Amino acid sequence: MNDLKIRTAIKEIEFRAHFEEIDTKVIDEMGLNLGSSIIDIAVINGSMMGYEIKSDHDTLRRLEKQIIEYNKVFDFLNIVTSKKYAPVIKDYVPKWWGIIEVEEKGNEVKVHQRRKAKLNKHISGYSLLQLLWKEELSEIIDVYGLDKRVKNKPKKEIWTYISEMLALDVIKDTVRQYLKSRTSWKADLQLK
């Protein structure tokens, strides 16, 4: 089963309700760590959920590095796979990751939740702040009354400063709000 079939099945079956929710954004191919990693599907609402797809045409070579990056950002993570990797995928992902198996039976695609995702306790405020544009970081500095001189520093210093000054829960809520409010995600992302 290929990536497109799996992605379509997940969206039609798992995310159908999310597409009707005003406060939820579903993003395909969301870049993390300045684009060095890309998660297949991100769902952002009251939390951030990531879905990494491993189809029959994929390998698991990059998964270890992807896991490290995804763990820094998402509240909940799921690995979505076909029958090819279903028997072994639990050996590759942390125990708190969800496992979703997608199988094709004739013209029908079935989705089976093999393990439910649990809350991630490894999120990094610094990594979350990397998802924001400089203008958004500047607004955070203003809103929370932080040192305005930091606005003129390189982004790395801004990420460090804000992550040290604000509680992780505040950073998580703020980043989610910015990501959900973007109207043309990919076009804007390429321009910034």
What does this structure look like?
The chain has 192 residues and is an alpha/beta fold. The protein has 2 domains: 3-115, Trna Endonuclease, Chain: A, domain 1, CATH 3.40.1350; 125-191, no CATH class. The chain has 7 helices and 6 strands, in the order αβββαβββααααα. It has helices at residues 3-14, 63-71, 125-129, 134-143, 155-165, 168-181, 185-191, and strands at 25-32, 37-44, 48-54, 76-81, 98-105, 108-115. It has a 6-stranded mixed sheet. β2 and β3 (48-54) form a beta hairpin. The protein is elongated and about 60 Å long. The model is unreliable at 186-192 (pLDDT under 50). InterPro entries: Sce7726-like (IPR047729). This is Sce7726 family protein.
Could you give a short description of this structure?
35% of the residues lie in helices and 23% in strands. The chain is built from 7 helices and 6 strands, in the order H-E-E-E-H-E-E-E-H-H-H-H-H. Strands 1-2-3-4-5-6 form a 6-stranded mixed sheet.
Descriptive tags:
single chain; 192 residues; alpha/beta; Trna Endonuclease, Chain: A, domain 1; 2 domains; six-stranded mixed sheet; 6 strands; elongated; disordered C terminus; Sce7726-like; Sce7726 family protein
Question: What is the overall pLDDT average?
Answer: 88
End-to-end distance: 35 Å
CATH topology of the largest domain: Trna Endonuclease, Chain: A, domain 1
Beta-strand residue percentage: 15-25%
What is the helix content? 25-40%
Provide a count of the helices. Answer: 7
Tell me the radius of gyration. 18 Å
Give the low-confidence spans. 186-192
Spatial strand order of the main sheet = 1-2-3-4-5-6
Number of domains: 2
